[in-house]
Each structure stands twice: as structure tokens, then as C-alpha cells.
Amino acid sequence: MSKKSPTKLAFIxxxxxxxSTWLSHALAxxxxxxSMHEMHIFRYLKESSDFNEAVHRLFxxxxxxxKGTSSFLRNYMARSTxxxxxxxxLSKGTATLPTEQIPNRxxxxxxxxxxxxxxxxxxxxxxEDFLNKLFTFLSRRVKxxxxxxxxTPTNIFEVDAIKNYFPNAKLISIHRDGRDVxxxxxYHIRRVHGTERSIKESAEHWKQAMDAEMNACKDNSIFQxxxxxxxxxxxxxxxxxxxxxxxxxxxEIIREMIYKSSFKxxxxxxxxxxxxxxxxxxxxxxxxWKNELTDQEINIINEVAGELLTEFNYK
Length: 315
Prior knowledge:
The protein is α/β, with parallel strands linked by helices and 315 residues long. The chain has helices at 20-28, 41-47, 51-60, 72-87, 110-122, 127-141, 159-165, 178-193, 199-219, 227-232, 234-244, 251-260, 263-266, 289-292, 295-311; strands at residues 8-12, 33-36, 147-151, 170-175, 222-226.
């Protein structure tokens, strides 16, 4: 099979806890884009040549798979009652948006297409065939407009594979101050896993991702964004990104993207800086590391990744 993309594809490749979810949600609001939630498929195919295993992980363990068929009833109820819950003010924020304005998950395919896609992928003849079948199927079943855009934080380590399989795909990186990443990482690990990750480990993971981004940008045309730009000047950032993607970048569209992906809208009215440690969107501010990290922790991060902080203009 040729290496021609089944439709226009773009991949968000930023390190996690750095704004990739925010950017994916913003792009999902563009009328010519359909975002895909984290599929991790390039990593799965790298780690195993067993297509049955890759299918299982894609549909059951990835965020896109959303725990397999066990989520179908909840997903169906959420979609079928969305309008009524919105009218009765029983839902708010992102939960009020129509399906096409939210990053796609496997359950959005419906049961028939869900099982059909699994069967098609299991019968792939190669990894290239697997990926072409996956994105061709999605482009026919869920695509509206020009682009499918998939975001997975670990894509930052899979740039060579992405460009090998889809040479015409656009790449979008997003990064964030490693000290703020360490703080966000701390709360995320506590909330999701009930455990702790050391500051040194968080700094090392950030450094690996930033090294990978710098190396990828040497050999590829990549649109580079940052969490801080999304906070401070989203109009300019999104305009430049949409120009890079050759999409409509009218002020009206950008205004809608900014508003409906904003921290306040997504959390149902909570202002940036108002913390909720039990929410994925915990606080939504830049520079929170100054409030959260001890001098010892800051020194550890500087020892591990100080040069990269300077390289990326984080002072």
C-alpha cells in the first residue's frame, strides 16, 4: 500500500501535562477539524508486531478506547440526554458541547462500526496497512471538513515513525515550563494513581521530551506552540496554527475556539487560579511552581534540566 494519507492528518506531539489536551479541544471546535483523543497507536505498534495485541490496547487501554465496551452505555446516555441536561442546567462546560466538537473516542463510532474496525485492523498485512486502515476508516465514519488531528503525548518520541507512515502529515508540538509540568504531574499522579513521583523523575521525563522535540524540529517542519502562549496570546497562536494547517482562521472561528476551550468554560465557571486538586483541570495558571515547589525541589529540577529551561526561555 502506498504511503499516501487517507485524508489530511495532523498529530499533536507535545509532552504530557503541557497543554496538548487543551490544544486538542480547541482544534476540535474548528468546523473543518475532527480531533481524536489519545490513541497511542504508534507506540503500541512499536512495542509489538502482534496486531491482536495492538487492537486490544487501542480499544481497551488507550484514552481513545475509554475502557472498551463497558463505556458504551454511559456514552450513549450522555449523548442522548445532552440537549435535555443542557436545557435543565444539569450539565455545564464541555459536557454541553455536541459530539463533533469534542475529541473523538471509540464509543462515538457506534457498536457496529466499533466491532467492524476491530476486525479490519486484526486482518492487517503490515503496520503501514494497519495505520492506513485505521485512519481511512475514521476519515469515512467521523470526519467532517478537512482534517483528522490526533493527540498523544508520547507521539513526541514517535516522530520518525509518523513521518515514515504519513509523510504529508502536519506535526504540532506543545511544551510548557518544566517546573509547572512537575507540579501538574504531582497532582495528576496523586489524583489518578494515589501515588507519588519524585521531582527528579518528573524533571527527567520533561528533559527527555524536550530533547526529543528539539531533535525532531531539526529534521522536520513542526509548528511549535507553548502552554504559556495559549494562556497569554491565544488569538495569535491559533491564527498562526490555522494558517500552518491552511484552514479558515477568521476572527469569529478563533473567538469560538478560545471561548469554548477556555478553563472557565470547560470547568463550568471556575476561574483560572481557583484550584481543584480532584479535577483534571486543576488550576490553569502559568508559574504556579513558584507557589508549590520548595527551594530544594527547584534546585533538583535545575540540576537535571536547567540548560533546557534556559534553551526554551524559561527563566
